[in-house]
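Supplementary Text 2. Reproducibility record for the structural model of the 125-residue chain.

All settings were left at their defaults, and a single model was retained for analysis rather than an ensemble. We include the record here because the model underlies the residue-level annotations in Supplementary Table 4.
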Amino acid sequence: MTTAALPFTVTQPLLAAVLAHNGTLARAFAAVLPAGCVIRHWHDLTAVLGEDDRLDTLLAGFKGNKSERLVLACVLMCADYAGQADALMPRVFTSWGGIDARNRALVLDMLEAPHDDDDDAATPA
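Retained model, structure tokens:
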């Protein structure tokens, strides 16, 4: 799955789904990710956000609602930015009731999916 209307390419399936569903997050990432970059794995996002103060710029400019902040926090968790995710959404469980169904499903998918660096991800059960 590739996100077409963005100046960068995302083939990481969950991130592509997040950006396809959530225009606010897509615009926020489009504002900070370099044109032409390709996000195939979570660690690609980790690397590109870690350059040139992109993560700080993303967080400083993000104006999403509660549901969008939760999804962004989960994206940051998947990209190994737990401290920033916690700062963005410190009361995840008290906020859960106000999250729309599609974003809730995306959050659960991100929490349950194996990540690029999981040892078990490459090993069949």
